[in-house]
Design goal:
The complex is a heterodimer. Chain A is an all-alpha fold. Chain A folds into 2 domains: about 80 residues, no CATH class; about 120 residues, Fumarate Reductase Cytochrome B subunit. Chain A has 11 helices and no strands. By secondary structure, chain B is mostly helical. Chain B has 3 domains: about 130 residues, Fumarate Reductase Iron-sulfur Protein, Chain B, domain 2, CATH 1.10.1060; about 170 residues, no CATH class; about 130 residues. In chain B, the strands form 2 sheets. Chain B has a 4-stranded parallel sheet. In chain B, strands 6-5-7-8 form a 4-stranded parallel sheet, sandwiched between helices. Classes of the chains: A mainly alpha, B mainly alpha.
């Protein structure tokens, strides 16, 4: 247990960060240096501002997808949006929100925002994730293009969401330990890895996911900016 | 000997797939970012009409994607273990040959993909590799050979071309009682007109309509036109086979003809892919610094229509007309409203198909498939290309029938042939032609 705690908490994070950053930068750098052709799909953007609007609409609102497959949009957009919010929420484990200071919120207010917002997002993401997994099994056209990677990633996400939700709703995990851990991991002081098993499992799964990011289908996160720009740009 | 040949072929495939690492950007992205959501299969006419899993666009693209991940990276074995990569198969060439010619490259999936993945680009890459191995379907490579030899896909001689033009002028006189001429190699004309050479033989009414159109133009403001005996075919199979050198050679022919005749405008006729190449993909005729402007007959006609250059007798068009957006005119070059403006000016009985414009369904004959009837030496193809086309065209047939129109304007030689055959095969009684077929009929000179 000690050794596991040590490796997940003190060794792996640096490895994870290194792989995530170097891997992603390498990918984006390779896309960046490759020759760009004009493959515009019409109607296309004709100016920089139009292009910006179009690409951002696709990235943040899934706009063309929204119009075409509303029923899938209703699950995938909340899925992505809640995960983004969850990631933002987790930032308070590492840093004392500059936003909190800026808005003059008290710790208590942040706690209740976290309890409500985080709780809702956690459950929403879980429900959507279950639906996506179900969809992958149930629809034959989706099943036939699914590989171990697709199922594996959904299961990993599911695991992360379930452990996270258990910590929030069932064991009511005390985050001050984690806050202390992160502050000492990157700053001064003796690092104490929280011994909670659930936390360690959750933490390990998240790191696995981050390590996988530059290698597999998660590349759609940085990639969409490039591919959408390519398709919309004609000037 | 045969196995040695096979091994070199497989090695070539691996090399070509690995080369994606060096670009272009678009292919690299498409290899990396597909999330396998499956939306493309709902939007592909092939996947909608053929139940086989290989017709799923994401699955077809996976043919290359999984090889790229296996051989193009250092962790190919790991990705293979999770199913994201695969080893090359001994039947690889045969699979590519069939599967990449079961995609018409219409780009409808790209319209709907959340990431904008354009599977047609992956298809073209696949076809390029097949072509480099000398395994393009027979009709494809044969057409390219004929085109390189004679300058046109039909292999027409100068004499036959001149004769066809003369004959069409007579037909115009007979059918519509108008005197037109089709000038050939007239130096100093304003416009060089290049149709698909199939128009001259298979769809003469379109070309007759075009001749009437240019007559109307000349009567309006003295604009003169000509055709070239060296470049009277805009069709370019290099787009379909992925053979860039061929595409460039044929594009050069059009460019040289424009320079030689000293025209101000290169106008492409009712042929979507010809316009796409001439305007956007060709290395010479598409350049911005040419002494001539590259446009197409719809933009030209619409420009004059807005000026009020034409008078139409709407009673002469008694058909109920619908319009099929060819993929290369619509999604790939943005010609949406111009043909509609023309049709609306010529008839009150114009009905839109649903969906239309950027979301229109492919006719099933795109990507050069429309010209292939037999098995074309594609070993794994079940039945013939004609069987295949009639099967996947069902979506288009339903779409046309829903409009209750009895004339479908499909301004692209490939679409025309495919939709015509579809309408006969399904015994719908719907007539198929171009937009300019109606122009010749309706215009009052």
């Amino acid at each position: 247990m000690e050794a596991l705690q040590y490796s997940i908490g003190k060794v792996m994070p640096f490895f994870t960060l290194a792989v995530l950053i170097i891997g992603s930068v390498y990918r984006v750098w390779r896309w960046q240096k490759a020759a760009v052709g004009n493959i515009a799909m019409f109607p296309s953007a004709t100016s920089g501002s139009q292009l910006f609007k179009k690409v951002m609409g696709e990235v943040f609102w899934f706009s063309s997808f929204r119009n075409e497959n509303r029923s899938l949009w209703i699950t995938t957009w909340p899925f992505h949006a809640s995960i983004v919010l969850i990631i933002l929420g987790h930032s308070r484990l590492i840093t004392d929100w500059p936003l909190r200071v800026l808005l003059g919120l008290s710790e208590e207010t942040v706690h209740s925002i976290s309890a409500w917002g985080g709780g809702v997002c956690g459950l929403l993401a879980l429900a959507c994730c279950l639906f996506l997994l179900f969809r992958r099994f149930a629809i034959s056209r989706v099943r036939e293009i699914s590989s171990g990677e697709d199922y594996g990633i959904l299961l990993l996400l599911l695991f992360i969401l379930v452990t996270g939700n258990i910590m929030r709703f069932y064991t009511h995990y005390d985050i001050t330990q984690v806050q202390l851990y992160f502050r000492t991991l990157f700053g001064a002081g003796e690092t104490m890895v929280p011994p909670d098993r659930l936390f360690l499992m959750h933490y390990l799964a998240v790191q696995m996911l981050l390590i996988y990011l530059p290698f597999g289908k998660f590349l759609h996160i940085p990639g969409i900016f490039f591919s959408r720009t390519l398709l919309a740009k004609d000037y | 000997m045969e196995t040695a040949q096979k091994d070199t072929d497989l090695q070539k495939i691996i090399d070509q797939v690995k080369a994606i690492k060096n670009g272009p950007q678009v292919l690299q992205l498409y290899m990396d970012i597909c999330a396998k959501c499956g939306i493309c299969s709902d939007q592909c006419h092939v996947a909608q009409t053929m139940p086989e899993s290989r017709t799923n666009p994401a699955k077809r693209s996976d043919i290359i994607r999984k090889l790229y991940k296996r051989y193009g990276s250092n962790w190919g074995q790991v990705l293979k273990a999770v199913g994201a990569a695969r080893d090359i198969s001994p039947e690889e060439v045969e699979i590519w040959q069939r599967d990449f010619y079961e995609c018409s490259g219409c780009r409808r999936c790209a319209k709907f993909c959340p990431f904008g993945i354009d599977n047609s680009i992956i298809t073209r890459k696949g076809r390029a590799v097949v072509h480099a191995l000398g395994r393009s379907p027979f009709m494809m490579s044969e057409t390219q050979r004929i085109s390189d030899e004679t300058g046109n896909d039909e292999g027409q001689t100068y004499k036959a071309f001149v004769e066809a033009c003369r004959f069409l002028c007579e037909e115009v006189k007979d059918d519509w009682d108008l005197d037109v001429e089709i000038p050939i190699d007239k130096e100093g004309a304003d416009i060089l007109f290049i149709p698909a050479s199939a128009d001259l033989i298979s769809f003469p009414e379109t070309h007759m309509g075009v001749a009437v159109f240019f007559k109307a133009l000349e009567m309006y403001d003295g604009t003169t036109w000509t055709m070239s005996s060296k470049a009277f075919d805009g069709a370019n199979f290099g787009l379909f086979t992925g053979d860039d050198p061929h595409m460039n050679r044929k594009n050069q022919v059009a460019h040289d003809a424009c320079i030689e005749l000293g025209v101000k405008k290169l106008v492409i006729g009712e042929c979507g892919h010809a316009y796409r190449i001439a305007k956007r993909m060709g290395p010479t005729a598409s350049k911005n610094n040419n002494p001539f402007e590259t446009t197409n007959i719809f933009e030209l006609a619409d420009e004059y229509l807005q000026k009020g250059a034409f008078k139409f007798d709407k009673s002469k068009v008694d058909e109920i007309v619908t319009y099929h957006d060819p993929c290369n005119f619509a999604r790939s070059t943005g010609i949406y409203e111009e043909p509609r403006n023309l049709l609306n000016a010529m008839t009150d009985n114009f009905i839109e198909m649903t969906p239309n414009r950027t979301e229109n369904w492919c006719c099933g004959g795109g990507g050069g498939l429309a010209v292939m009837d037999g098995q074309e030496k594609v070993a794994k193809l079940e039945g013939t290309f004609l069987d295949y086309r009639m099967k996947v065209g069902k979506v288009k047939v339903d779409q046309v029938l829903a409009t209750k129109a009895n004339y479908c304007a499909a301004p692209c030689a490939n679409c025309k042939r495919q939709v015509m055959q579809l309408m006969e095969h399904y015994e719908t009684g719907v007539k198929v032609g171009g937009v300019f077929d109606l122009f010749g009929k309706a215009v009052v000179l």
